[in-house]
Amino acid sequence: MNRLKGKVALVTGAARGQGRSHAVHLADEGADIIAVDICADIESNEYPLATPEDLDETAKLIEKSGQRVVTAVVDVRDRAALKAALDDAIAQLGGLHVVVANAGICPQGNHIPYRGFIDAFDVDFVGVVNTIHVSLDHLTAGGSVIVTGSIAGLVDQKDLATGGGPQGPGGAGYGMAKKMVRDYTKALALTMAPHSVRINAVHPTNVNTDMLHNLPMYRTFRPDLPDPTREDAELVFPILQAMPTPWVEPEDISHAVVYLASDESRFVTGQQLFVDAGAGLKMGM
Q1: Of the residues 53, 128, 133, 180, which has the maximum number of CB atoms within 10 A of its CB?
Q2: According to the model, what pLDDT value does residue 163 have?
Q3: List 47, 114, 174, 259, catalytic entry
Q4: CB 9 within 8 A of CB 34
Q5: Is residue 240 part of a domain?
Q6: Is 224 domain-assigned?
Q7: Superkingdom, according to UniProt (predicted)?
Q8: How remote is the C-alpha of 200 from its chain's centroid?
Q9: 47 is catalytic
Q10: How far is it, in rounded angstroms, from Cα 98 to Cα 258?
Q11: How many domains are contained in the chain?
Q12: What is the C-alpha end-to-end distance of the chain, expressed in Å?
């Protein structure tokens, strides 16, 4: 406890799923939180995204930890709006020490138009870049940036593209974004190392959140069925992992995020940490 006492952490995609879990775990360790989420749907992404009520619930959970929280409804694709919200929150909370660039979408299906590629890439990579670049001027020695990647970044791009599988343009955009996260975090880690600001990425496999549990994703895993149920998909979810599990839990990723945010990892930078139950090993990483 209190590994993050006195620190302020920005978390994007904080209204639910991994983002909420990261925000709450960071708060449990003593951090005040800037919680950001779009709280609206994106047309090419066919499963519902978080709501303002979800973000309010995240704020309540943070306050239960005894920490301060500032929330903002912002699209990470809008750098100017993100900067304005961040500057305002920092003025209220007194600084910034940790950045968790987590916001993401994963549109699935060959029927989705090319817009799915654009939206997935813009949220999952451009949104990461926007989040970090508006934050860097506020970070000083000891600052830590953690980016949510994915084992999807290990999949050959041709296997994610339209015609190469059920993922479609959105899956292709998602995979390209996650590939670029790896090189981007390494390059930025080298750039920021002289300033003692650390940049790391965490790459999950399936995570037990709404991004996994939706009909478009079930169809990706069960293309043999027109309308697969959760139970249908759960039969094949374990195929990805080397360990016998269909998914990891959000808190499994949060434990890694807390470590990378804390001074316990003060000399850890440029790392690609796979919390994936051995999925990367199966994929030949």
Answers
A1: 128
A2: 42
A3: 174
A4: yes
A5: no
A6: no
A7: Bacteria
A8: 12
A9: no
A10: 10
A11: 1
A12: 34
